[in-house]
Structure formats: structure tokens, C-alpha cells
Design a protein that fits this description.
Elements lengths: L3 E5 L10 H8 L3 E6 L6 H5 L9 E6 L11 H21 L5 E5 L9 H8 L5 E4 L4 H8 L11 E5 L4 H9 L3 E5 L5 H10 L6 E5 L7 E4 L12 E4 L7
Parallel strand pairs: 1-4, 1-5, 2-3, 2-4, 6-7
Antiparallel strand pairs: 7-10, 8-9, 8-10
Length: about 240
């Protein structure tokens, strides 16, 4: 009897992976990972040279990413069927062997594996190996602490509507905004109305090759979906 083990890989730099994650990968019989069709996948790229050469790879290719808005019923139908299918496959594989599922960052922090986790309950033994979050890697890249003293930290998705972004950005001390991509202009407008734009930073490819850190006011018109915006808290300190 095996189990499904979801391994958090951390923010992108392989050296920020946990010792446990590294150990499991070097002896893995089966390794599954999410990716866009035709792409290698960021998680798979992170473990180059770490996972066992004899590992059987299982590429879980999303049927849709940004082609359809997430509010469209078809988006939910396609992804639900995708997760159902892979939950079935992982359950079958884990009947006899361990299966490692790769996850960027931490599996329980907005990770795709959560949708499999809920479907695997009562069907397979599941283990989670936590990892350093992407946002932690990004705020560290700015060279400044994200929170001080009693600062309240809020984590937002740039996919929220502009009014919600504005309200929440105005009512927190420190701020992290994820999933930016096509939402950049909306985010800038919201932060401007909240009075936070001048204090905001943008980190692309945090901890990875090609990392960039710049003021959000200076970024070009387009940024990757997985860029992260940071507004540091300025709270109580000795």
C-alpha cells in the first residue's frame, strides 16, 4: 500500500527546498506535476537534477488556464473533470506505490493540489510536505521586512474586482497581491485610490534566475501572472 505525497518545492530556488522534500524526490518511483499543455512546467523545472532518473513522470496538463474567465461555468466544468480524473489516477497508483505530486510554494497556500486533496479523502493515504511560500521569497527579495510589531498583513488576488482591491488595500498595514498578469492596470488603479501605489514593489520570478525587483510605478504594461506585488508594513518597533 502506497500513498500520495504532495511536496512543497518552495518559491523557486531549488536550494530553498526542504531537506525532506529533497529526500523524497531523490527516491521517488512516480512523480506527478501540473503544467500547461506543451510546457515543461515550473515545478518540474525546479527539480531538474534532483528527482531520481528512474522516476516515472506523470504530466497533469490543465485543460484551461486563462483562455476562459473563471466565472464561466465551462471553466469550472473543465477543471472539475480534470481534477476528478487525476484523483482517480493517483488513487489507483497509490494502491501499490508512493506517488510524489510536485507543488510550487506551499501546497496548502493557494496550491492546485488542494483540489486533488479534497477529492482523495477516504480514497488514498495523503501526506503533505510544506514549503516556503512564493510570497515569502518575494518579500525577502525586496530586502525589507514585510511586517513590524502589530502590523496586519493582507494577502489579495489581483483577480478580485477593483472596488474590493481598493477597500482591502486601504485597510491593512502590509499587503501582498498575487495573480497579477492581465490585472496590472486594475491593481494600479486600486492602489492609487487606496493611497498605496507609491509604496508598492513588484517582484517577478522571485528567488529564480531572472528575478527582478522594482517599484510598481515603474513596471511595463504587462507582467507575468505569477508576479507578486508587495507593500511593506511600517508598524511598531523598538
Amino acid at each position: 500500500m502506497g500513498k500520495v505525497i504532495c511536496v512543497g518545492l518552495g518559491p523557486g530556488d531549488p536550494e530553498l527546498m526542504s531537506v525532506k522534500a529533497h529526500r523524497l524526490l531523490t527516491g521517488a518511483q512516480h512523480v506527478a506535476f501540473f503544467r500547461k499543455p506543451g510546457r515543461r512546467g515550473q515545478a518540474r523545472t525546479i527539480v531538474d537534477g534532483i528527482m531520481a532518473e528512474t522516476s516515472v513522470e506523470h504530466a497533469m496538463e490543465y485543460p484551461v488556464t486563462t483562455e476562459i474567465h473563471f466565472s464561466d461555468p465551462e471553466y469550472n466544468r473543465l477543471l472539475s473533470a480534470f481534477y476528478d480524473d487525476w484523483a482517480d489516477r493517483l488513487t489507483d497508483l497509490s494502491q501499490t506505490e508512493d506517488v510524489i505530486v510536485l507543488c510550487e510554494g506551499d501546497p496548502f497556500f493557494y496550491g492546485s493540489f488542494m483540489h486533488l486533496h479534497s477529492r482523495l479523502q477516504g480514497r488514498a493515504e495523503v501526506e503533505i510536505v510544506p514549503g516556503i511560500t512564493g510570497m515569502s521569497g518575494c518579500w525577502t527579495a525586496t530586502g525589507h521586512p514585510i511586517t513590524w510589531g502589530d502590523d496586519v498583513l493582507t494577502v489579495l488576488m489581483a483577480t478580485l474586482d477593483e472596488e474590493e482591491l481598493t477597500t482591502r488595500a486601504a485597510n491593512t498595514d502590509a499587503l501582498v497581491v498575487m495573480k497579477i498578469g492581465r490585472n496590472l492596470d486594475k491593481l494600479k488603479r486600486a492602489l492609487t485610490k487606496a493611497g498605496r501605489l507609491q509604496d508598492a514593489w513588484l517582484v517577478e520570478k522571485g528567488t529564480m534566475a531572472g528575478q527582478t525587483v522594482q517599484k510598481l510605478t515603474e513596471v511595463p504594461a504587462e507582467v507575468p501572472y505569477f508576479s507578486i506585488a508587495i507593500v511593506h508594513g511600517q508598524g511598531r518597533r523598538p
